[in-house]
Design goal:
Elements: H1 4-8, H2 13-40, H3 59-172
């Protein structure tokens, strides 16, 4: 239980309670006094119940207001920070989207290059087949040329022999 000196300190919890109690008591007393005055007069119009008048601003109320101002400033500051974070997040999302688009474009380029390489491989395979068939054709031509040389050698030998026979026959006459 707080002592009397602690109860009167403005910063202590029990001091706050007693300030609240005093304010409520003052409001109650003014409300009752206003109601008694209203009963003695002849009411020409209905008077609303007397509102509790605020007590004189105390150090406690000033502390509360200062605290509320600090909270409002902190809330504004946090709101600005949240907005900055939202802006940074949006920039990151935009950057990620552009990176994703660039990645997709690169992927398409790689796919196109792979298709081109496949086409070149197929084309080079076709060229290899053509070279192999040309080798076979060249081998056939070589065998034909060898046969032609052989036959032409025999033909020339026969012609030389015939010329020799014709020459001998012409000389004998």
């Amino acid at each position: 239980m707080p002592t009397a000196s602690e109860a009167n300190e403005p910063g202590s919890e029990s001091g706050k309670r007693s300030d609240d109690r005093r304010g409520c008591l003052l409001a109650l007393v003014t409300g009752v006094a206003g109601a008694q005055e209203g009963e003695q007069e002849t009411p020409r119009r209905a008077r609303p119940a007397a509102a509790a008048r605020p007590a004189a601003p105390s150090a406690h109320a000033e502390e509360d207001r200062a605290l509320l101002r600090q909270l409002a400033d902190a809330q504004r500051s946090l709101g600005e920070q949240v907005q900055q974070l939202k802006d940074v997040l949006e920039a990151l999302r935009a950057d990620m989207a552009s990176q994703k688009d660039e990645g997709a474009a690169t992927e398409q380029e790689v796919k196109a290059l792979r298709d081109e390489v496949k086409g070149l491989y197929v084309e080079s395979s076709g060229v290899k087949q053509q070279i192999d068939s040309l080798k076979d054709d060249i081998g056939g031509v070589n065998s034909n040329v060898s046969g032609f040389r052989t036959y032409s050698g025999f033909f020339i030998a026969v012609m030389i022999l015939l010329l020799a026979v014709i020459f001998v026959l012409t000389i004998r006459r």
